[in-house]
Amino acid sequence: MKRNWLLAISLALVVTMVGLCGCTQSTNLGGIISSQQQGIWVTGTGEVTVVPDIVTLRLGIEAQEATVAEAQTQAVEAMNKVMAALTDNGVAEKDIQTQYFSIRQVTKWDRVEEEEVVIGYRVTNMVTAKIRDIDKAGAIIDAVAEAGGDLARIDSIGFSIDDPSAYYEEARQKAIADAKAKAEQLARLADVTLGKPTYISEGIQIPPSIRVGVAEAPAVTPISPGEMEISLTVQVAYAILD
Fold this sequence. Notes:
This protein is α+β, with helices and mostly antiparallel strands and 242 residues long.
């Protein structure tokens, strides 16, 4: 009987402690939600249109032969020519970086033997090359295609800004002004007085690279950088004075 009483008391204590913990967590969560709902929350957007001044090419070679040695020999010779074409056309060595290298078996299904058989080996060597003189991009693509021949591969092209800090400052100013205008309108509609910002958070949207495939280069490859958008958003919370 004594053991039963002790067990009942223990269970009661456990239930009480769980109940207290649950109440504490609920109160804290309610306080967080309450604080987030205070004031006027708005999102402002700032965009700046700019002309890219950097071209980044992802290029290289791909060789396939019956043996690894033969494929590797072809790959090395072709890649050396491609690298020379890049540097001869003004691409600095510091702006060339290896991105991918592999040696893989090439197989096919043998219907007679009903199994995979090795028919050769493929060597792939890809680099990124940053071209700082955007007007030379087309000529460099042509030079790489000629140097690498049938082994040349140009996987993608991307445009960017060398130093976007000034453009982000301009976009940030526009985003803050946009957020303030929205908050002032909401305050007027709600017939309240807008206070100072109590919270500011920034988000930057990075423009994606444009990917193109180049199989056979014509006499002159036309490259147009066009324009790109630098976009920035801010989330701002304003206090309400009355």
